Amino acid sequence: MVKSIWQKIGVVAVEDPVAEETPSAPVSKKQSGPYSVVDAMQQVHTDVQAKVSVEGGVAPTGLDNLKLDEGITANITTNSAFATANEFFKVNESLVAIIADEGTRFKAALAAAKLSAPDVINSVSYFSQGIELEQQSFDSSFVAGANDEIAELNQRIASTADEIQQLSTKITELAGLKADLEAQSAHKLACLEYAKIDFATVTKKIAARYSDIVAKLNKYTLGE
Fold it and tell me: How many angstroms separate the CA atoms of 127 and 124, rounded?
């Protein structure tokens, strides 16, 4: 069973498809084995892990649309349901250089391949089912995976916001405590300065008192 390309590509964001001219008919490529998603998509033009610097953050990344087209087309055209269409396209392509008119060439190709128009139309119409399968795989793998990652990132954002709020509250509390401590320190410093003055005043007064007594004792008892 051919794996969907979405099971291999490691990117999420998809660019808007580039408008292309519709070919007259797709040409089925011969393959030696099952379609290799890894080989087809190895040229994905953006590495999701690479951080592209842009204003406001990281630039969105997308897919290589050409490789994406080749991958989905290969998955469709290699399905057994597309076998009849491939037979028609092969014969039709061989007649391009011979029959220029597309309508005439289509009829000739049907006749040469011995195929009926309804059978070819039914086979080609498998593309709708093939795209639907790719869409389902894309939704269940890439989209679901990306949404899980986005949800996880949003949880981390919410958790970080809560932490910021808690830190903000703590900062406010600490700022208030700091202001209170600064006020206490300033008050303590002022008290210390006043204490120094008071101590100096008192000790000076005491020194003067006792110095006066010593002077009197010397005068009265020693006759000095």
Answer: 6
CA distances from 146 to 41, 54, 135, 149, 186 (A): 19, 21, 15, 5, 58
CA dist., res. 5 & res. 38, Å (int): 8
Asked if 148 contacts 18 with a C-beta cutoff of 8 angstroms, the reply is no
How far, in Å, are 11, 133, 142 from residue 136 at the CA level? 16, 5, 10
b vs e for 190-199, b when ≥16 Cβ sit within 10 Å of the residue's Cβ?
A: eeeeeeeeee
Q: How far apart are CA 208 and CA 6, in angstroms?
A: 101
| Burial class of 6 by CB neighbour count within 10 A (0 to 12, 13 to 18, 19+) | buried
199, containing H or E segment:
helix 144-221
Q: What are the respective helix, strand and coil percentages of the chain, to the nearest 5?
A: 70, 0, 30
Per-residue pLDDT of the chain (224 residues; tens, 9 = 90+): 445 555 555 443 433 333 343 344 444 444 444 433 334 333 343 443 444 444 445 556 676 788 888 999 999 999 999 999 999 999 999 999 999 999 999 999 999 999 999 999 999 999 999 999 999 988 888 889 889 999 999 999 999 999 999 999 999 999 999 999 999 999 999 999 999 999 999 999 999 999 999 999 998 998 76
CB distance 214 to 208 below 8 Å? no
User: Which residues, including other chains, have CB under 8 Å from residue 120's CB and lie 6 or more apart?
Assistant: 84, 85, 88, 110
Concatenating the DSSP letter of every residue in 116-140 gives: -HHHHHHHHTHHHHHHHHHHHHHII
